[in-house]
């Protein structure tokens, strides 16, 4: 490993992405993996996935560049009909979505069919890797626990004002978190999450101590995790609302580590630890 290069951003310490090899990230020396990056919004459309005409959104462009460094081909799409087609063409599927994706939306992008949703969930259960960013938990929300929510591991409830907050590291051997110590601070829009799946392995905890706003006056809860859905590896992080988070080295390194694990390029212990590391997480 090369010398670690330190960056100070927003009063926090980060590790430069250039300081780490990419061989572990996504099989850099082998076959190029294809990742479908689905960014359709049927609810609130975040600025990082909003396109200006035919120009790709901020996160789409950043994710494509991240992929190039790790031998990944990122294919962005807002067309829900893609899930009625051949999902075997993709090595993994990533979501930055919102709302009920089978509904029409303001942007007039084609919705996902009910059959396409089932096909997606069946593919993940059969072994297709899945990665979720931020609003992916604000997708297919319902009064109960939607099968999609069961798959991803949690559901968005609300959020308060953007602020700097502490992410506590609870899984130091998970790929992509090397060198982060006990955690790091970052400014973002922090989701409050519920309907947490006890089968998850928590990687980062949202430390609510010292956070401002009534929505965060609750026990700390998971913010980034890994879990299995059948045979499929699922990785989710609540980070990613802000444009500068997407270009942040620590965020990118964590994401590439999660993708590496999801693709099966690296193995690590993901024994469920929800009750151990966030015992009161379900208390709203």
SS strand fraction: 25-35%
Helix content class:
10-25%
The largest sheet, given as strand count, sense and whether it forms a barrel, is: 9 strands, mixed
Individual helix count: 7
Order of helices and strands: EEHEHEEHEHEEEEEEEHHH
What is the typical, i.e. mean, pLDDT? 90
Q: Based on the structure, what is the oligomeric state of the protein chains?
A: single chain
Order of strands across the main sheet: 4-3-5-6-13-12-11-8-9
Overall shape: it is globular
Note poorly predicted spans: 1-26
Question: Based on DSSP secondary structure assignment, what is the total number of beta strands?
Answer: 13
CA gyration radius, whole angstroms: 17 Å
What is the SS-derived class? alpha/beta
Spatial separation of the terminal alpha carbons? 42 Å
Short note summarizing the structure:
The chain is α/β, with parallel strands linked by helices and 284 residues long. Helix 3 links the parallel strand 5 and strand 6 (130-133). The protein has helices at 23-26, 58-69, 114-125, 147-152, 243-246, 249-262, 274-277; strands at 6-9, 12-15, 33-38, 72-77, 92-95, 130-133, 155-159, 163-169, 183-188, 191-194, 201-207, 221-229, 232-237.
Describe the structure.
The relative contact order is 0.17. The protein has seven helices and 13 strands. The termini are far apart. The radius of gyration is 17 Å and the shape is globular. The protein is α/β, with parallel strands linked by helices and 284 residues long. Strand 12 and strand 13 form a beta hairpin. The N terminus is likely disordered.
């Amino acid at each position: 490993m090369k010398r670690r290069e330190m960056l100070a951003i927003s009063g926090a310490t980060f590790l430069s992405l250039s300081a780490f090899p990419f061989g572990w990230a996504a099989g850099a020396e082998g076959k190029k993996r294809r990742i479908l990056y689905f960014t359709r919004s049927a609810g609130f459309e975040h600025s990082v996935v909003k396109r200006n005409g035919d120009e790709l959104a901020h996160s789409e462009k950043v994710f494509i560049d991240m992929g190039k460094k790790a031998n990944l081909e990122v294919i962005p799409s807002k067309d829900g009909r893609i899930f009625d087609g051949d999902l075997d063409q993709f090595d993994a599927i990533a979501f930055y979505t919102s709302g009920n994706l089978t509904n029409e939306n303001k942007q007039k992008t084609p919705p996902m069919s009910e059959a396409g949703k089932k096909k997606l969930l069946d593919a993940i259960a059969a072994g297709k890797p899945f990665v979720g960013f931020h609003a992916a938990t604000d997708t297919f929300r319902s009064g109960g626990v939607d099968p999609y929510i069961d798959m991803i591991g949690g559901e968005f409830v609300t959020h308060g004002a953007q602020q700097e907050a502490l992410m506590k590291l609870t899984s130091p051997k998970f790929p992509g978190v090397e060198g982060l110590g006990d955690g790091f601070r970052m400014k973002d829009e922090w989701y409050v999450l519920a309907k947490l799946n006890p089968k998850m392995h928590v990687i980062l905890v949202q430390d609510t101590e010292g956070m401002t706003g009534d929505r965060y006056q609750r026990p700390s809860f998971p913010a980034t995790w890994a879990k299995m859905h059948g045979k499929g590896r699922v990785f989710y992080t609540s980070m990613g609302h802000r444009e500068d988070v997407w270009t942040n080295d620590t965020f990118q390194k964590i994401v590439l580590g999660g993708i590496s694990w999801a693709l099966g390029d690296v193995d690590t212990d993901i024994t469920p630890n929800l009750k151990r590391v966030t015992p009161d997480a379900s208390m709203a």
